[in-house]
Amino acid sequence: MLKKKVLDIGHRGASGSKPENTKSSFLEAIKLKADVIEFDVHKTKDNQIVVIHDSTVNRTSNGTGKISSLTLRELKSFNFGTPQNPQTISTLKEALQLIGKKAIILVELKNTVKGFEHLALKEIERIPQHNHIWIHSAYFPILINVRKLNPNIKLGYIVYFSYFHHFFRNYYKRLSIKYDISFFSIDAIYGNQFFIQNFIKELQQEKIQVFTWTVNDFMTMNKVINWGVDGIISNYPGLVKQAIKER
Question: The whole model's pTM is what?
Answer without folding.
Answer: 0.96
